[in-house]
Q: What sequence folds into this?
């Protein structure tokens, strides 16, 4: 199966559990299982190629200019991790099916789980490091959702946030590191990067890149000092802990270190950083784990410790260390997932995870006892179990490792870590299962149904199987190790076997196990000592840091962003004028190349009207109704100006927009106060006036200077003029640009317009649902209402005019391609026709005659335009390529048919829908307020029998 | 004539900025509308001023004005209607919801806001 499918299946499958949610829990889990199984089988079909040592690849160019391509590769290492992710995923899905309670939303859980699974598989199969980063962030996000799955638990939410903060920060650092790495090599493809060891290690940027990438790996894999998030993430449901926090996600960092091993390892920096962090983590995690009373916390810290162990092995930079690391990743995944699932079973059955309240469970839960004990003994490093083998290899490697010129440091710490590791394993067995049966369990335990214990039992079979017959997996381990080494080092010659003879590692191993037994037998005095010792609480430190950062950013933000819009506007004005002045003062102005045109008295009169209206608006703006009249004058002068300066299309658009804008503002004034009170001081008004005049003078100077100069480079307008008729089949160049040359722009613009209208609609709905509704209903109009709300003359006139308006609109639409007009203007004209009906005959009467909702009209418009564009795909042309032809149907003249007209129809519909939906929303507010619905369109209708007295408005409903 | 257009742009800008700096929503909306005119005319003028040469191809014409700014401004006019409508709706919602049509938050007591 193609690698694309292996990665894509979990993502696509993530849609299914949510859909199957209503079909029952079995169906929901079943479909998730089927999806994972399909991906797993798909992966296995690639096994022969991997075993043959081939590199399976798949490639799609995504954004080649950025070097970001969907390239996947599968080698031994990738196969190994993908197998872990998908294989253990199958067990976890089975387990979760029985673990989740009836009230948990299973569809949601499995959706997150599959998203996570897809992201993880993506990481391990990526051949492009940018793509890898995308998947990396996806695992952070999906694990956030999984950890916080029980949204009602505060620990879950806090743990999820902490995990996201820490791993997210690490991810950011890693983006930096990967970009540096890509820059050094000149390619973002892993397969290329891995060939350039000398280039990378010789680069001065090697150290920054290494530190940044390691930050990402250490946060993800919970290495010291970032280990603290993992125990808090244990608030997640146990299947999540078993999956993410033992087998997969926390190994992502380790995976990456292994992946980058050929190019990053082997330097002193790598050795000190990685081995050092690994050693500290291993010892620290093991010690803390021993004293944890929560079963899952114990396992969490033990995971931290084991991840440290693997990190340390990768840090040594030797081939044998890499092989030990690979083998321990495999073993840890088996016994730790089994242990987590056992902890989940105990929690499920006894309703507690507190070790102090447990004990004697071996009699009550023999099956669980068997599973957990074997897994724990393997973790402790007891022979004939797989944990023993890799732990011996670790001790062997540690024995040969020299850190800080000391032959004793690494072996000593390794033994110490193993000693505590053995101790907490023994404590887990002893304090939970052994001892007398108690009578104070929160819930009487017994072994669960097979669905819960079969998955961990399967893993324990592996634990024992590998432990007894390691030669079965040795070829596979060596294959994976070979792909970790990537040809930079020889494969180790040693074999994995139980008996190596009396080597130092054996003595170290014995010391660790015996020491562990001694520690656990002296547990109670040690615990008192531990409880008495002061130690830093990671969560408190983390919360303090986060709190400090929040306070700091609050101070910065509140200092700059104090909620005063006026202030921002003033700052922006000053800044723009200042930058403009700087450019003006430092640049040069070329000589004027155009002769100023002479203005006639009529033009001067028009200019005077505009200036007078603007000044009047500024001076009289407190009277809001008057300011509407004045702004109307400004709009009219601008429209006339457009006609005068050869822009008939613009003039028509401006004129029609003017009408709908004024109606809109009138509708708004219906609710807003009619006057603006005087509030600002004279000083402040003077300041604002100075700012305004400065900005005005600046724009004036700029406009005047460029109006007298030609463009420096030839304009692209000549192309449009030359090709409008030849290529677009229309003589109105402005319209051809809109629907043809720049049709994609226009398409975006009608979508924006539609979204604006929908936003207004949504805001209206929100307002009418909230407390505003009551206020509107109780609102009394401040001004006296007109007695005759729907005058007969107006009603009759608008009805007579309506067909004419439609005809004019149709005409403007049709001629648009060759004469001034087009979809925008026609849409506005037709909207005005509709608005007239609302105004004259009332809202209720008009909406009762409305056949299509305006949302639908907007949608139809956008769809029509979009489908017209897509249509060109069928003839092999790019999106929105237009075509036209001339036809002649007798007895008509020859006329043109253009696909651009269909596109313009879409524009027309979108404009009508958007304008009408906006205005309709405003008047819906008014309807809720104080205007009674009228039964009849006209207040006075001679054809009715009972003409009411116009001076006494009717009072009945 | 160039001076007339340039000064008109300047006057519209100045009036617009002054009104945008007012404290209530309605004058701010008026100011933004004035600024819209100013910007549209400014963009339109980037095609330079030509009298009597509309960009409608015909056999007799010797010159045409620049059609490109016109096409851009045409959509800008329509979009600005949509934008104005949204702003008006927000202003209206704020006024109906809080009985207050100030554009600024109450800057005197930001601490009280944080507590909520």
A:
């Amino acid at each position: 199966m193609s690698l694309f499918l292996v990665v894509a299946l979990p993502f696509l499958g993530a849609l299914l559990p949510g859909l199957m949610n209503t079909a029952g829990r079995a169906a929901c889990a079943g479909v998730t299982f089927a999806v994972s199984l399909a991906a797993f089988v798909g992966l296995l079909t690639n096994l022969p190629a991997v075993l043959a040592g081939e590199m399976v690849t798949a490639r799609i160019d995504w954004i080649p200019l950025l070097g970001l391509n969907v390239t996947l590769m599968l080698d031994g290492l990738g196969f190994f991790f993908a197998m872990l992710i998908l294989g253990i995923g199958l067990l976890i899905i089975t387990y979760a099916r029985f673990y989740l309670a009836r009230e948990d939303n299973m569809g949601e859980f499995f959706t997150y789980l599959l998203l996570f699974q897809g992201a993880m598989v993506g990481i391990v199969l990526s051949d492009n490091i940018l793509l890898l980063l995308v998947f990396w962030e996806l695992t952070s996000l999906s694990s956030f959702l999984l950890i916080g799955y029980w949204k009602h638990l505060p620990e879950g939410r806090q743990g999820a946030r902490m995990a996201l903060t820490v791993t997210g920060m690490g991810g950011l650092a890693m983006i930096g590191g990967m970009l540096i790495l890509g820059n050094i090599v000149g390619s973002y493809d892993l397969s290329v990067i891995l060939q350039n060891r000398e280039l990378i290690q010789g680069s001065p940027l090697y150290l920054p890149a290494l530190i940044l990438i390691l930050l990402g790996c250490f946060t993800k894999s919970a290495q010291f000092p970032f280990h603290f998030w993992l125990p808090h993430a244990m608030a997640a449901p146990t299947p999540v802990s078993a999956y993410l926090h033992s087998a997969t996600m926390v190994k992502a960092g380790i995976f990456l270190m292994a992946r980058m091993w050929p190019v990053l390892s082997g330097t002193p920096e790598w050795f000190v950083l990685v081995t050092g962090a690994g050693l500290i983590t291993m010892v620290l995690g093991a010690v803390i784990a021993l004293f944890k009373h929560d079963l899952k916390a114990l396992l969490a810290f033990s995971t931290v410790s084991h991840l440290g162990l693997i990190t340390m092995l990768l840090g040594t930079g030797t081939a044998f260390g890499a092989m030990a690391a690979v083998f321990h990743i495999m073993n840890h995944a088996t016994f730790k997932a089994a242990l987590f699932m056992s902890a989940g079973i105990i929690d499920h059955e006894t309703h507690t995870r507190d070790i102090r309240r447990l004990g004697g469970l071996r009699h009550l839960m023999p099956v669980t006892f068997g599973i957990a004990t074997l897994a724990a003994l393997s973790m402790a490093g007891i022979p004939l179990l797989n944990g023993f083998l890799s732990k011996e290899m670790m001790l062997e490697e540690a024995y040969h490792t020299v850190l800080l010129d000391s032959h004793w440091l690494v072996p000593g710490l390794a033994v110490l870590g193993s000693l505590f590791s053995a101790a907490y394993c023994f404590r887990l067995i002893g304090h939970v299962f052994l001892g007398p049966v108690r009578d104070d369990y929160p819930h009487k335990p017994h072994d669960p149904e097979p669905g819960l214990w079969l998955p961990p039992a399967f893993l324990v079979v592996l634990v024992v199987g590998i432990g007894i017959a390691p030669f079965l997996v040795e070829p596979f381990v060596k294959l994976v190790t070979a792909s970790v080494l990537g040809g930079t080092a020889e494969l180790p010659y040693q074999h994995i076997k139980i008996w190596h003879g009396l080597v130092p590692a054996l003595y170290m191993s014995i010391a660790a196990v015996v020491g562990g037994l001694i520690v656990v037998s002296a547990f109670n005095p040690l615990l008192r000592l531990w409880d008495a010792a002061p130690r830093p609480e990671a969560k408190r430190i983390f919360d303090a840091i986060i709190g400090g950062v929040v306070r700091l950013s609050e101070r910065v933000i509140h200092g700059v962003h104090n909620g005063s819009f006026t202030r921002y506007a003033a700052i922006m004005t000053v800044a723009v004028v200042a930058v403009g002045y700087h450019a003006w003062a430092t640049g040069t102005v070329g000589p004027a190349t155009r002769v100023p045109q002479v203005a006639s008295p009529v033009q001067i009169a028009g200019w005077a009207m505009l200036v007078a209206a603007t000044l009047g608006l500024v001076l009289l703006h407190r009277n809001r109704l008057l300011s509407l009249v004045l702004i109307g004058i400004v709009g009219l002068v601008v429209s006339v100006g457009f006609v005068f300066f050869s822009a008939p299309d613009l003039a028509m658009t401006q004129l029609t927009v003017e009408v709908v804008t004024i109606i809109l503002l009138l509708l708004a004034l219906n609710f807003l106060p009619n006057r603006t009170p005087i509030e600002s001081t004279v000083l402040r008004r003077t300041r604002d006036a100075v700012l305004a005049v400065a900005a005005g003078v600046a724009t004036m100077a700029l406009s005047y200077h460029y109006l007298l100069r030609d463009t420096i480079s030839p304009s692209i307008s000549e192309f449009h003029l030359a090709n409008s008729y030849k290529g677009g089949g229309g003589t109105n160049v402005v319209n051809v640009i809109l629907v043809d040359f720049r049709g994609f722009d226009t398409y975006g613009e009608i979508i924006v317009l539609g979204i604006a209208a929908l936003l207004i609609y949504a805001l209206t709905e929100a307002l009418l649902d909230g407390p505003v509704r009551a206020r509107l209903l109780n609102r009394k109009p401040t001004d006296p209402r007109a007695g005759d709300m729907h005058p007969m003359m107006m009603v009759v006139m608008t009805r007579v005019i309506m067909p004419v308006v439609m005809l004019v609109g149709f005409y403007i639409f049709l001629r648009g391609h060759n004469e001034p007009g087009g979809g925008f203007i026609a849409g506005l004209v037709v909207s005005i026709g509709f608005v007239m009906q609302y105004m004259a005959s009332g809202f209720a009467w008009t909406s009762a005659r409305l056949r299509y909702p305006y949302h639908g009209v907007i949608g139809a418009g956008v769809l029509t335009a979009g489908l017209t564009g897509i249509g060109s795909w069928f003839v092999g042309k790019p999106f929105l390529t237009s075509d036209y032809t001339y036809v002649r149907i007798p007895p008509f003249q020859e006329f043109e048919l253009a696909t651009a007209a269909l596109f313009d129809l879409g524009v027309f519909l979108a404009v009508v829908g958007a304008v009408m939906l906006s205005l309709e929303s405003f008047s819906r507010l008014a309807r809720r307020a104080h205007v009674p619905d009228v039964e009849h369109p006209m207040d006075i209708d001679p054809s009715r029998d009972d003409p009411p007295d116009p001076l006494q408005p009717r009072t009945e409903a | 004539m160039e001076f007339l257009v340039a000064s008109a742009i300047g006057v519209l800008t100045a009036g617009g900025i002054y009104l945008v700096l007012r404290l209530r929503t309605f004058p701010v909306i008026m100011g933004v509308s004035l600024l819209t005119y100013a910007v549209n005319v400014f963009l339109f003028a980037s095609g330079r001023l030509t009298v009597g040469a509309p960009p409608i191809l015909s056999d007799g014409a010797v010159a045409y004005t620049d059609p490109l700014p016109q096409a851009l401004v045409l959509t800008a006019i329509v979009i600005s209607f949509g934008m104005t409508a949204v702003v008006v709706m927000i202003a209206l919602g704020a006024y109906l919801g809080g009985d207050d049509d100030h554009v600024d938050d109450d800057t005197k007591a930001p601490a009280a806001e944080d507590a909520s």
Observations:
- Chain B touches chain A through 89 residues (CB under 8 Å).
